[in-house]
Amino acid sequence: MTDVSARIVNACEEAICRVVGDDCPGRRPGGPGTSPLASPGPDPSRGAATPGGGPAPSPAPQPPPPIFKPICQADPNAPWVDGLHAHNDYQNGDPLDDALENGATSVEADVWLEDGRLRLKHDKDEPGRYNDLREEYFEPLIERAARNGGQIYPGRGQKFEIFIEVKGGGGAAYEKIAQDIAGPPPLPADVQVVIPVPPNFNPDMNTIGNTPTPPNITFSTGFGPDCTFPPPRLDPQNQDVDPETGQRVYHPKTAERITVLNGEFDKCMDTDKGRKLYLSQGEHERFRALVQQVHNSNRKVRIWGGPDGDWRTGYGKFIDCPKLPTRDQCEGGIRKNWWQAARDAGVDYLVTNHLAQGAEWLRSCSKK
Hints:
Layout: H1 3-20, E1 81-86, H2 97-101, E2 104-114, E3 117-120, H3 133-147, E4 160-168, H4 170-182, E5 191-196, E6 201-202, E7 207-208, E8 211-212, E9 217-222, H5 252-257, E10 258-264, H6 265-268, H7 281-296, E11 300-304, E12 311-314, E13 317-319, H8 335-345, E14 350-352, H9 355-363
Parallel strand pairs: 1-2, 1-14, 2-4, 4-5, 5-9, 9-10, 10-11
Antiparallel strand pairs: 2-3, 6-7, 7-8, 12-13
């Protein structure tokens, strides 16, 4: 048979095999008479063939890698302090600027939607000291990133985070957050905004209200009853339905966006409610195991409500513990003990009103 005739025969066999799906010699990689058009092997994107001839189901997605416990590396001159979190930052003397000057890598802001603006304040009746979220936080961060090649802390390699708590305004406030992030100009990719799951988030459409969810928005959620893991939003077995939305509390696309678990000190750490100088060994062990569970799911832990020391009475002002009628609201003596317990367990954020002290403590890996 001539070369031309052989090529014609091979081409015909190839065409027949494509129709009937037979395993022909010309289709085996490297086999006799292999056609230049023959497939080099199965298409990985289609899955392996089943006995019936159709593609096999795609393999189940692999779970994300765990988060490793943060390791303190003493560096008194570090331009940033990993884990330093400015609690209610808008109440500081110079919001955002104070946090950045002390090297904080995350801040928290409370907002109320009023007259179409996200006002920064904790309680509804507060007059509000500043304009709104975008002007006080987003725009300065946009300008800082523009000066630094798109980064808040050049060379850090991790995103700066803003935790936003909506105190009033419901779903419309969450949608306004998404709109303010989108700009113009948009919030830089080096800034991640963490919010509770919005009541008007549509996981199938990836929208908050009618607004597309920006890629740099992620969600936080609380722990389960008695500070347990997983909480309902992360438990595929949970069948609860949200009475407001009529949808299941658990949705895989919502769960994918949850990056942080928020827990209260009294429920997650000081479980016997003793508010004592040191946590018991049992409390330490239980809490370490809890943090490890969260890290294994590729999520972070933030604890709020701990005994953080001097009581803040106004914007940038504090009352020393001895000046209070009772020390119950202050408990400055156990602040660093709870900081230490949180760090030993691997908590990812040191939530504090005291940025300078927190920064010094973290930079030195203090054990005091």
